[in-house]
Amino acid sequence: MGDYNISPSLDGLQAIFLDLDGTIYLGGKLISGALDFLDRCGEKGVARFFLSNNSSRSTSQYRKKLSVFGIEVEEDEILLSTHDLLSWLGENNVEQTYVVGTKGMCSMLEDVGINTASIEPQYVVLGYDTEVTYEKLVIASEHLHRGVPLVASHPDIVCPSPNGGLPDVGAFLDLFKATTGVDPVHICGKPNPDMILHKITELGFDPARCAMVGDRLYTDMKMAIDSGVISVLVLSGEATRDDVVEFGDGIDLIVDSINALLR
Asked: Which pLDDT score, from 0 to 100, does residue 217 have?
């Protein structure tokens, strides 16, 4: 894994982008030291943003979830794969969709005028649907069979939990591939660099003085490397040190948890 030139103190940092599941909390339990770390962000004047590929909740639902952990955030401090999806749908003038997703995700699309239950959709949209029903899978499959293209909110195969990985969007993509033979025309969310570069550009920050902290190699760390920000892997979630060997070079810093940072 080599030596790392970046200190855990992350001196001179302007902003830090934080994965949630596996980094700030795991399942229903806060990662030890997370609140103290967030206090240090405030003390050092480091802007913090919370990122998640998990498209099962809306920003307001994430605010409530974080509040339960004692973390108070503004909605513009939360960046979801759904935001990246909304940008993509807007760029492609999509207003009619059939969404396999939660009510929370659908509300974010409907708030900007996108129909999420169209009988003549331009796209089938797949999110992390913790409210999935067989009827939804049937309707989506029928649309795909007749040539409606598929777009996904993010590529994660599993959602981490204390009891092991749970089926996420990537697993449902495999289901639709097996059922219909259809692959998505686009997958939003991490590791797309735009997930954080939009915010960095908006704030006028220098990517080299920003950091991405996460527990996943092929989403969090790949996005960090491709974005030109400091890549910080925490071992409190999915990835292990053995996984890093397989991933290869490029990670700037590896720590056990965010408790080690900004000290």
From this structure: 94
